[in-house]
């Protein structure tokens, strides 16, 4: 596996593989099994597998955890190589943003709900860096985890609207044995919070089952999930929403393809999770 640190160096190498299919996994690093499952797919389903590590400052707001976001480049490189990655792209902020951006991208759908409601500009930062990365890597297939289902829905519409010539592939959430979604931020949970955190997923599953009752409405579903999370964790609920997916539109009754999603704040970490299902 080769490690490249500038867009020019990666582009030069990938230009030699124009006749090969390229699978790409964009990440912010500190790999866990969720990331590795994406890399396994990219490696198995393409001639060339590329992953990137870039903690993108544009998607962090004031007071968010950009500086303390966990980083371990040496460990990540070893894991990426083991997962079959051919080229690992680790650019600096300076190489990705050599000057102040003269172009701004703004998403106006699927962003004012869930995490986007409390993080204005977050998804504008996400699509800006992805536009740059997609133009550098020029992948055939891009693999993203469905743990952040809103991000996947936003990126899906972004790629469709701007006609990026790639296939975006959503990979199911990888979980611990007790159901907790794998996340780089799990390391910031206290021992007690780590014991409580699996209750989030159990509450979502209970809400999914409740949604199958034809007499139920979405407000009743979300209230039940909130009660279960509040009863079984010390975290503070940021939101619980039951929406259509991938459009992320509120409905009075759960019908069709739905997402039940939540964000819960603990002392040192904000955890997100969701279940996507059909009613």
UniProtKB/TrEMBL annotation:
It is found in: Cytoplasm. The active site is at 35 (proton donor). CDD domains: PanC (cd00560). Keywords: ATP-binding, Cytoplasm, Ligase, Nucleotide-binding, Pantothenate biosynthesis. One of its GO terms (molecular function) is ligase activity. Its main location: cytoplasm. ATP binds at residues 28-35, 145-148, 174, 182-185. Belongs to the pantothenate synthetase family. Catalyzes the condensation of pantoate with beta-alanine in an ATP-dependent reaction via a pantoyl-adenylate intermediate. Homodimer. This is Pantothenate synthetase. It comes from Aciduricibacillus chroicocephali. The lineage of its organism: Bacteria, Bacillati, Bacillota, Bacilli, Bacillales. The gene is panC.
